[in-house]
Design brief:
Distance between the termini: 57 Å
Number of strands: 19
Oligomer: single chain
CATH class of the domain at 80-283: Mainly Alpha
Shape: globular
CATH architecture of the domain at 80-283: Orthogonal Bundle
Helix content: 25-40%
Number of helices: 20
Strand content: 15-25%
Low-confidence stretches: 157-186, 269-279, 281-316, 369-383
CATH topology of the domain at 80-283: Transferase(Phosphotransferase), domain 1
Strand order of the largest sheet: 14-15-13-16-12-17-18-19
Mean pLDDT: 76
């Protein structure tokens, strides 16, 4: 066995001649070692990328070193099998297995696409670079690990969302880097067209996801149009692999939502029975992605406010369930705005503790849990799970919902709902999110820091977005960004779901450009300007009504358009 660096590592298996090895150290711990030729710049690329993307879906960098024989990177040993080896040994995956792996892949890519230092694209997503981790049983659920990050690179700061501007990493040496990156690409089947012209963007990775899905389902490598898959699988591959980035899914969050909708429909969870085709058409960015009207949703009145154009013009409209932490005032205001703009909106609190503050901002009433008589708590006896089989009208008849707002489009969970349908288990949260996506265009769930952590984490997993509302200054925005990044790195949240709104914004606070640099332009929804009336409401001044009387301003229209499109 050959030793390296004074015998610190010994080769136990050559995985690729003179390139990749399984090694052990003096304590018999296994590692993966990759060799580069002396002077090979790819060594610096992969070392930098591994250092900047620390997450559960990328191997941990142990160390790097150089000697007269070459340059070496040592990472953790990932126990498992690549997608390529699995297909070779066991044949193609079925549709559900493929869908589950695609979700995990998107979660992994979200750590690259939503880095705090700017988006990074993987650019080498192919069967041999995705390891299905060994979970001890050899069966589902699958978990993934992305290996070989030497091709990954930052997206140019001046590049637009479709990748039509900018040429890569903003390093000042773009021509050389573009040539080097292009030459290093693996199979041409998985490479998006724009990458060959040095215009990589996050949709380039989504293109690779589509081709990889075709490979996993058929067992052969081919161009997207040659797979000829039917049903959801065919539409999904087409939705990922449009020739132009603007015709693909806008980001990995959209991919996850479409695939989860398919899985829910397959297992009977989606009681609305929204077809997978409809979900795909709602989530694609292309101009031909037309919104199909939902028969259960009221149409805006002809004489209603011009703000209803958010519905008629939102071609990418999709239903969303949004979690907002520690800001019931924002939840109530955006709830009223959503209803006035024509969206059927549901507003809820995760637990009864936060119900009182939300009730105050919605209705002016402030309930005291301790003063509620026992007979008022459970006036009905029923299996609460069965209520998720019923619609909004049945909930209103039982007193679990009230309607208000423009055209009675704003529905709020009542105090009785918090007591009779408590969200005390992860399964309850999942059923509630499925039910809300079935019955509302937009669902807002207010949570408090003191709520059950397990339930909050479950809600984060199943909701469409998590909206953070830091005060509109650089320090608070950075602090909350770092908080959610820490949650993501511990596996408690998918960071690509997080969006930011600057709360109590004033002209003297940080401007948008500064905030863009902190959280990313795509993750910033807008700002809510400071209001003296809001402050008086918050302090419960007797001469100020809790419920806002004015129609929502353009600031909420902008936030909502970005939230549901």
């Amino acid at each position: 066995m050959e030793g390296f660096t004074g015998g610190k590592y010994n080769i136990v298996e050559t995985l690729s001649y003179n390139r990749a090895f399984r090694v052990i150290d003096m304590n018999k711990h296994q590692y993966f070692m990759k060799r580069f030729e002396p002077g090979d710049g790819s060594f610096d690329d992969e070392k930098r990328n591994l250092s900047s993307v620390a997450c559960p879906y990328v191997p941990e960098l142990i160390e790097s070193f150089e000697d007269e024989s070459g340059r070496y990177i040592v990472t953790e040993w990932v126990s498992g099998v690549s997608i390529a080896d699995h297909v070779y040994n066991s044949g193609p995956f079925d549709v559900k297995e493929t869908a589950e792996i695609i979700i995990k892949l998107c979660e992994a890519l979200s750590f690259l696409h939503w880095r705090k230092d700017g988006a990074m694209v993987y650019l080498d997503l192919k069967p041999s670079n995705v390891i299905l981790r060994d979970n001890g049983s050899g069966t589902r659920p699958f978990d993934v690990c992305l290996v070989d990050l030497e091709s990954a690179r930052p997206v140019a700061a001046n590049a637009d969302r479709s990748g039509s501007k900018g040429d890569g990493d903003g390093s000042g040496n773009n021509d050389e880097r573009k040539a080097r990156k292009t030459l290093r690409l693996g199979s041409p089947y998985y490479t998006a067209p724009e990458v060959l012209f040095g215009k990589a963007c996050v949709q380039s990775d989504i293109y690779s996801i589509g081709v990889l899905a075709g490979y996993m389902l058929t067992g052969r490598e081919d161009y997207p149009s040659a797979y000829a898959l039917k049903g959801f699988a065919g539409e999904f591959v087409a939705g990922c692999t449009g020739p132009d980035p603007g015709l693909r899914f806008v980001n990995v969050s959209a991919v996850i939502e479409a695939v989860r909708a398919f899985l829910n429909a397959e297992t009977g969870k989606d009681q609305k029975k929204r077809g997978a085709s409809a979900v795909l058409s709602l989530l694609k960015r292309g101009e031909n992605a037309e919104r199909k009207a939902d028969e259960s949703r009221e149409k805006p009145a002809e004489n209603s406010s011009g703000a209803h154009r958010i519905i008629s013009d939102a071609m990418n409209f999709r239903r969303s369930c949004v979690m907002v932490e520690s800001n019931p005032c924002f939840v109530s205001e955006i709830g009223f705005a959503s209803a006035e703009m024509g969206l059927k909106t549901g507003v809820f609190a995760l637990c009864e503790r936060g119900r009182r503050n939300l009730d105050y901002y919605l209705t002016g009433q402030y309930f005291d849990v301790d003063k509620v008589a026992e007979k008022q708590i459970y006036p009905y006896v029923f299996d609460h799970k069965s209520m998720y089989l019923h619609g909004v009208n049945d909930w209103m008849e039982k007193g679990l919902l009230t309607a208000s707002g423009e055209g009675q489009r704003l529905y709020a969970g009542t105090f009785k709902k918090s007591l009779e349908l408590p969200l005390r288990r992860a399964e309850d949260v999942r059923m509630f999110v499925d039910w809300s996506l079935t019955n509302f265009d937009l669902t807002l769930v207010s949570v408090e820091r003191g709520d059950d952590e397990t339930l909050i984490n479950t809600l984060m997993e199943f909701c469409s977005y998590v909206v953070a509302t830091p005060d509109s200054n650089v320090e608070d925005m950075e602090s909350l960004r770092n908080y959610y990044l820490a949650l993501a790195q511990s596996g408690k949240i998918i960071y690509s779901k997080v969006r930011f709104v600057a709360w109590d914004y004033t002209n003297s606070d940080a401007d948008r450009e500064k905030l863009f640099k902190i959280v990313g332009k795509d993750k910033y929804l807008g700002e809510v300007f400071r209001s003296e009336e809001r402050i008086r409401r918050k302090n419960r001044m007797e001469d100020v009504k809790p419920v806002p009387e004015e129609a929502p301003s353009e600031q909420y229209e902008e936030i909502l358009q970005r939230l549901i499109s």
